[in-house]
Amino acid sequence: MENSLFYFAIAGFFGLAVWQLFTKNGRGKALGGSIVETLSEQVVYKKGAKTTEITVHVIAHGMPQKLVGIEIKEKAFAGFSLKPVSLSKAEALRLAKLLTEAAQKT
Question: Are 86 and 72 in contact (CB under 8 A)?
Fold first, then answer.
């Protein structure tokens, strides 16, 4: 009985992880709401066996104001990582300004 409960908990954990990583609804929940729109262009950076993808979304979260969702995926040979970041409009504009300033200095 204890073994079956343990395996059920493990299967539930992996099921939740798969739902969150591979479905639009799951990624939206990780970003704090639901994905309204996904911008069509991704930023992809490859270095060796590691690939990093950055995707930008518009997120609705129950308030009249929408959020900017940034999804950072890292893929490697034996691993996968998803880092969700949600920003308000003011924070997203400030980040865009900082990125522009840094890019101009390179």
Answer: no
Instruction: Write out the chain's pLDDT in tens, 106 residues.
Output: 567 888 878 777 777 666 665 666 777 777 778 888 888 788 898 988 899 999 999 998 877 888 999 999 898 888 888 888 999 999 999 999 999 999 999 8
Query: What are the start-end ranges of the H helices in 23-106?
Result: 24-30, 89-104
Query: What would the two tokens of residue 26 be?
Result: 């799951």
Q: Can you list the alpha helix ranges (DSSP code H) found in the chain?
A: 2-22, 24-30, 89-104
Q: Are 50 and 26 in contact (CB under 8 A)?
A: no
